[in-house]
Write a structure and sequence with these properties.
heterodimer; A: alpha+beta; Immunoglobulin-like; Neutral Protease, domain 2; 13 helices; 32 strands; elongated; B: mainly alpha; globular
Chain lengths: 680, 325
C-alpha cells in the first residue's frame, strides 16, 4: 500500500500535474462520500452544529508520502480546561535505515516559567501579546504523558527522557525521546500507544482557551521528522513554528453537546452521548498536523467556491459581535482561493475552515493549520483597514507554503512566512488594487508590499534570512527579516526575472514540492531553472548575507562648456551647451545592477544601466540642455533599496511635500495646544 | 443694551464677535507657536524631500507607510516632536496667563488697552494657577471613574464572548467621564468668571461659591455650555469631512485654510463659552457689574483693587442663587 502511495506521488510529480488532473475522480468520490457522511451525521443528529459536515474528497488517492498515522481519542473538560486523550501512532520507517530512538514534541510544555520558550519570551518577546509582562498561572500549559507503550516491546513510560537539542536547558520539557529495545527495520512499522493529559493555557501562541472558547492546537505528542539523515525535532521557541511528517489523522473528541466544533480534516460523525456530551469523529489525510476548536458561541457560516480541483466548502466559525465581517471573510477567502488556484496550483482539499476567535482571544488568531486557519477581526474595524483581509489571506496562503509545501519552519522560517508574505502582497494587490491593498480610508492609502518593506527597513541588517528561527537577534528582527525582508527580496527578484516568469517559477515550485519538505536550495534551483538565469549573485547577498542595499544620487550638475570665456553670451535654452553630470553612489554593500534615468530640460531622457560593482559612477553628457533630474531605479523594482528618498535628485526644489506635511504638523500642534489649553 | 433681550447663548456669540480681536490674538499666538514647531519639523524633512521625486508620493496621496519611512530617514524628526510638545506647553501657559484679561474684556464688553489687558492678566494669573491645581485635584475622582469604567469593560471583555457589552460599558463610561469633565470645567469656568467679576482673591471661597452657582443652576448653565460644545463638534466634523472628502491631496493651500478654519472654530467656540458664562453671571448678579466697572474706571487707579468685603457681604448667609434671584 505504502509502495503504491509513493509510486503515485512520484508519478504525479513526474507528470507535472497534480490534483487538477484528477478533478473528475475528485468530484465523483466527493459525491459518494458526502452521501455516506450524511448518513453518519444524520445518525448523530448534530449536523447543524458542526463545522465541516463534509467528508473526504479523495479517499481513493494519496497525495503525500504518508509516514505517520495518528488515531487519537480525546475528551475535553471545559471546566478544568483539560484534554485527556489516548493516541495510537503508527510510524512507517521510510528512512532506509533501522531506527532505535524516537523523539516527540510536547509543545504545550513550553508554557511553563522555566521552559526555553518563556526564557526567550523574557529575553526578546514573542509574537503574541502575553505573557511578556510577567508570569501568570493562567498561562500554564502542559502535556503530561501518562503512559507510553511500544506495541510488541512493552511499556516505555519510565524510559522517556527529556532532551534539549537546541539550548541544553534542562528545564525545557518540550521534546522527549524514547529509545527502543529493538530497532525498527527499514520499511517496517512501529506502533506507539500513548495516554496523555493536556492542561490548556489561557490563549497564547495561538493555542488554549478563553472562557468557553477552545483552540486545541499543538496538543498531542507529535513525533519528529527524520530529515537529512537525522532526527529533526527542535524545542518550542518563542519565535519558531513547526515541522512534521505527512500522514493520516483519525481523531475523536468528546465535547459538551452544545459546543460547535471545527477542525482540520473532514467530519465523519457526531454522536450524542448520554452524559450531555457528544463525540465528534474526524478523518484527515495528507496533512502533517491536526488542530480543532470548540465553543458554544460560534455561529457557522457556510459557503463554497469551485476551482480547478473541484468544490471547496468554506466554513466560517464566527464569534459573537463580528457579524459585520462575514462578507469580508468570505470575499477574501474566495478571492484568495481563486488567485492561488490560477497562479500557483490547485487547492486539493475539499474544505477550508476559518476560525474567528472571540473577544479577548486575539492571541488565538492569525495561525495556520492544515485546512483550518484562525483569523481575526474586531466589531469596529472599518472596511478600508484591510486587517480581516490581510490575516485571512495570509493564513490561507500557508495552506500552500507550510501546509502542502511543508518546509522546516524551525530552520528556514523565510520559506513559509516569507514566501507566504510575498504571495500575500501579490494576492492582496490583485484583489484590492495597487497602492490600496493594505489601507484605503479617509484619504489615506497604503500598499501591503510597502508595509512589508517597512517591516524590513526597521532592522535591515541584523540577521540573514537563512538564520535558524530561534537564533535571530530578537522577535523584531525575526519578523522584519522573515516576513518583511523575504517578501521584499522576492518582489525585487520579480523585477530581475519578470513578473510572469516569477509566477511560473512559483507555480513550478509548488507543483514540484507539494507534499514534500523542500529546502531553500530547492527553491533557488527552481527559480533559476524556470528563469534560465544564474541568480547565485543575488541569493548569496539577499538570502545568506546581511548587506544593505542603498543607492543614492549624490549630485547632478550642468556646467556651461564656455564657462571660461569672459564675454560668454547669456545662457539661452536650447542654444547654450552644457556638460551635464550625474553622480550615483552605492551607499550600501549590497551590489545590484540598477537603471538610472536622467531627464533634461529639453524633454530628452537618458536611461543608463549601472552594474553597481564600483562604489560610484558618474554619467556625463554634453548637451544643449540642462539636467533636470536623475533617478536610480525609476520603476522602483529594486524594492530592497533601503531608502527611496535618496534614489533621486532634482535640480529644482519642489517644496510641496514639505509644505503639505508641515501643514499637517502645524494642525496637529495647534490642535494639541488648544486641547491642553482647555484645562487653563 | 440690545443683548439684554437675548439669551446668554446668543449674546455670548455676539460678545465674541464684538470683541473678536481677542480671538484673533489668541489664534495668532497659537498659530505662531505651532509654526515654530512646524518649522522645526520642516527643517528636518526638507533636505530629504525637496529634491527627491519620492516626495511626490506624499503630495498626491497620504501614504502613512511612506511617511513612516520618511520619519525613519529624517533623523531629527523626534527632536521636532519634542520641540512641538514644548510649544504646546508654552501655549497652555500663555492661555493660563491671558485668561484673566480675556474674562475682563468680556465682563466689561469694551476694548481694553494693552496695559489694562495685561494688568488684568497678571492680576489673576496666580489665582488661576491655584484654581488649576484645584482643578487637577478635582479631576482625580473623574480619572478614577474613568479607570473604573475601563476596568469594568475589561472584566466584561473577559467574561463575555461578545465585544458588545464591553463596548457599551466603555462608551457609557466615556460619556459619563465627558459629562463629568464638562461639569467640572463649567464649575471652574464659573469660579474664574466670579473671581474676575468680584476680584475674588480667595480661590477656595470662589470655588465654593461657584459650586453653588453652577450646581444650583446646572440645567440652564450646562445646556448653554453643551449647545456651544455641540456647535464646536459639528463645525469640526463638517470641516474635517470637507477636508477628507472634497479636498484633493495636492491642494495644499485649501487644506491649510480648512485646517485653520477647524482650529479657529474650535477656539472661537471655547471663547463663546467663556463669553456666555460671563453674561450669564452678570445677569444673575447684576449689582456686581457697575461696581466693578466703576472700580476699574481709569481715573482713580487705587479703585483697580476693589475691596473684597464690598462684594462679599450680600452673599453671606445665603446662596448666590438666592441673591441673584
Amino acid at each position: 500500500m505504502l509502495h503504491y502511495m509513493v509510486k503515485t506521488i512520484k508519478k504525479l510529480k513526474a507528470e507535472g500535474r497534480g490534483w487538477m488532473g484528477c478533478a473528475f475522480c475528485h468530484r465523483f468520490v466527493l459525491l459518494g462520500v458526502i452521501l455516506a457522511g450524511g448518513v453518519a451525521v444524520g445518525a448523530g443528529g448534530q449536523a447543524g452544529s458542526e463545522a465541516g459536515v463534509q467528508t473526504q474528497a479523495h479517499a481513493s488517492q494519496t497525495l503525500s508520502t504518508r509516514v505517520v498515522a495518528y488515531q487519537i481519542e480525546a475528551r475535553l473538560d471545559p471546566v478544568k480546561k483539560t484534554v485527556d486523550a489516548t493516541e495510537t501512532l503508527t510510524y512507517h520507517n521510510l528512512t532506509g535505515r533501522p531506527l532505535d530512538a524516537f523523539p516527540f514534541h510536547l509543545y504545550l510544555n513550553a508554557f511553563q516559567p522555566t521552559a526555553t520558550f518563556m526564557r526567550e519570551v523574557r529575553l526578546y518577546g514573542t509574537r503574541g501579546t502575553d505573557p511578556e509582562s510577567g508570569w501568570d498561572a493562567k498561562h500554564y500549559g502542559a502535556i503530561e504523558v501518562k503512559s507510553l507503550e511500544v506495541v510488541g516491546q512493552g511499556d516505555f513510560t519510565k524510559h522517556m527522557q527529556f532532551i534539549q537539542p537546541d539550548d541544553h536547558n534542562p528545564d525545557d520539557h518540550t521534546v522527549f525521546q524514547v529509545k527502543l529495545a529493538k530497532p525498527v527495520a527499514p520499511g517496517a512499522d512501529i506502533v506507539f500507544k500513548i495516554a496523555f493529559h493536556d492542561q490548556l493555557p489561557e490563549v497564547l501562541e495561538r493555542t488554549g482557551y478563553k472562557r468557553n472558547f477552545f483552540m486545541v492546537a499543538q496538543w498531542f505528542p507529535k513525533v519528529g521528522v527524520w530529515w537529512h539523515d537525522a532526527w529533526n525535532c527542535h524545542q518550542f521557541h518563542a519565535s519558531t513554528e513547526f515541522f512534521a511528517d505527512f500522514g493520516t489523522f483519525d481523531v475523536k473528541a468528546t465535547v459538551p453537546e452544545n459546543y460547535i466544533v471545527g477542525s482540520t480534516g473532514d467530519l465523519v460523525s457526531a454522536v450524542p452521548n448520554r452524559d450531555h456530551t457528544k463525540t465528534v469523529t474526524w478523518h484527515a489525510e495528507d496533512i502533517h498536523d491536526f488542530a480543532w476548536t470548540a465553543s458554544p458561541d460560534y455561529k457557522l457560516i457556510e459557503d463554497s467556491w469551485t476551482g480547478s480541483a473541484g468544490t471547496v466548502h468554506i466554513h466560517l466559525l464566527l464569534s459573537p459581535g463580528h457579524e459585520r465581517s462575514i462578507r469580508r471573510y468570505l470575499d477574501v477567502i474566495k478571492g484568495t482561493l481563486d488567485r492561488f488556484d490560477k497562479w500557483y496550483g490547485p487547492y486539493p482539499y475539499d474544505r477550508i475552515t476559518l476560525v474567528d476567535p472571540p473577544q479577548g482571544a486575539g492571541d488565538a488568531g492569525g495561525m495556520e493549520y492544515p485546512t483550518l486557519i484562525t483569523c481575526g477581526t474586531s466589531w469596529w474595524m472599518p472596511e478600508g483597514v484591510r486587517g480581516v483581509e490581510l490575516v485571512t489571506e495570509h493564513e490561507f496562503g500557508h495552506q500552500y507554503w507550510y501546509g502542502m509545501v511543508a518546509t522546516n519552519e524551525f530552520e528556514e522560517a523565510w520559506m513559509d512566512e516569507g514566501i507566504n508574505s510575498y504571495t500575500e502582497a501579490k494576492v492582496l494587490e490583485s484583489l484590492y488594487g495597487k497602492g490600496t491593498s493594505a489601507l484605503s480610508l479617509w484619504g489615506m492609502a497604503a500598499d501591503d508590499a510597502d508595509a512589508l518593506r517597512l517591516e524590513y527597513l526597521a532592522l535591515p541588517d541584523t540577521d540573514p534570512m537563512s538564520r535558524l528561527g530561534w537564533q535571530f537577534m530578537n522577535i523584531g528582527a525575526y519578523g522584519g527579516i522573515t516576513y518583511g525582508k523575504t517578501a521584499t527580496v522576492l518582489l525585487t527578484l520579480e523585477g530581475i526575472i519578470g513578473e510572469g516568469t516569477m509566477r511560473r517559477a512559483m507555480h513550478t515550485y509548488f507543483m514540484r514540492y507539494r507534499f514534500t519538505h523542500p529546502t531553500g536550495t530547492d527553491f533557488i534551483k527552481t527559480i533559476e531553472e524556470v528563469s534560465g538565469q544564474k541568480l547565485d549573485w543575488y541569493f548569496q547577498q539577499a538570502l545568506y548575507g546581511t548587506n544593505v542595499l542603498d543607492y543614492e544620487v549624490l549630485g547632478i550638475r550642468s556646467d556651461r562648456l564656455d564657462w571660461f570665456q569672459k564675454d560668454a553670451p547669456k545662457p539661452k535654452k536650447g542654444v547654450t551647451l552644457y556638460r551635464d553630470t550625474v553622480l550615483v553612489h552605492r551607499k550600501g554593500d549590497f551590489i545590484m545592477p540598477v537603471d538610472v534615468r536622467i531627464k533634461f530640460d529639453n524633454g530628452e531622457q537618458a536611461l543608463e544601466r549601472w552594474e553597481g560593482r564600483d562604489r560610484w559612477v558618474r554619467f556625463s553628457y554634453d548637451k544643449k540642455a540642462k539636467v533636470v533630474s536623475a533617478e536610480v531605479d525609476p520603476q522602483q523594482t529594486v524594492r530592497l533599496d533601503k531608502d527611496f528618498f535618496n534614489n533621486s535628485k532634482t535640480e529644482e526644489a519642489d517644496r510641496r511635500a514639505t509644505c503639505k506635511l508641515s501643514t499637517y504638523w502645524l494642525f496637529a500642534v495647534q490642535f494639541m495646544a488648544q486641547l491642553l489649553a482647555w484645562l487653563a | 443694551m440690545s443683548n439684554l433681550n437675548k439669551s446668554p447663548f446668543v449674546a455670548g456669540l455676539g460678545l465674541v464677535w464684538r470683541r473678536q480681536s481677542v480671538l484673533w490674538w489668541i489664534f495668532a499666538v497659537n498659530f505662531v507657536l505651532a509654526c515654530m514647531g512646524a518649522g522645526t519639523f520642516a527643517r528636518q524633512v526638507s533636505p530629504v524631500l525637496d529634491h527627491s521625486l519620492q516626495g511626490q508620493a506624499l503630495v498626491h496621496s497620504f501614504n502613512p507607510i511612506v511617511l513612516t519611512a520618511l520619519l525613519m530617514e529624517a533623523r531629527g524628526a523626534p527632536a521636532a516632536g519634542m520641540a512641538s510638545a514644548c510649544l504646546v506647553l508654552v501655549f497652555f501657559i500663555f492661555m493660563l496667563f491671558v485668561e484673566g484679561g480675556l474674562l475682563e474684556v468680556y465682563r466689561l464688553d469694551r476694548r481694553l488697552t494693552k496695559g489694562e489687558f495685561f494688568e488684568a492678566s497678571g492680576r489673576f494669573l496666580w489665582r488661576f494657577v491655584r484654581l488649576l491645581i484645584m482643578l487637577l485635584i478635582v479631576l482625580i475622582p473623574v480619572g478614577i471613574v474613568f479607570s473604573l469604567t475601563t476596568r469594568a469593560s475589561h472584566i466584561l471583555d473577559e467574561r463575555s464572548p461578545s465585544p458588545t457589552p464591553g463596548v457599551w460599558v466603555r462608551l457609557t463610561g466615556l460619556l459619563v467621564v465627558l459629562f463629568l469633565m464638562q461639569a467640572v470645567r463649567l464649575w471652574f469656568d464659573m469660579a474664574q468668571v466670579r473671581a474676575v467679576a468680584e476680584d475674588e482673591r480667595a480661590m477656595r471661597r470662589a470655588l465654593g461659591r461657584a459650586f453653588k452657582i453652577t450646581f444650583g443652576n446646572f440645567g440652564s448653565l450646562y445646556w448653554m455650555y453643551l449647545r456651544i460644545s455641540i456647535v464646536a463638534w459639528l463645525l469640526m466634523a463638517v470641516l474635517l469631512w470637507i477636508w477628507v472628502r472634497l479636498v484633493r491631496p495636492e491642494w495644499i493651500g485649501v487644506s491649510f485654510l480648512l485646517t485653520q478654519l477647524v482650529l479657529l472654530s474650535w477656539l472661537g467656540t471655547r471663547l463663546w463659552q467663556r463669553a456666555s458664562e460671563t453674561i450669564w453671571y452678570q445677569r444673575r448678579l447684576p449689582g456686581v457689574v457697575p461696581k466693578l466697572e466703576a472700580a476699574h474706571a481709569p481715573p482713580p487707579p487705587p479703585a483697580l483693587e476693589p475691596e473684597a468685603p464690598d462684594f462679599n457681604p450680600p452673599v453671606a448667609g445665603t446662596s448666590d442663587l438666592g441673591e441673584a434671584a
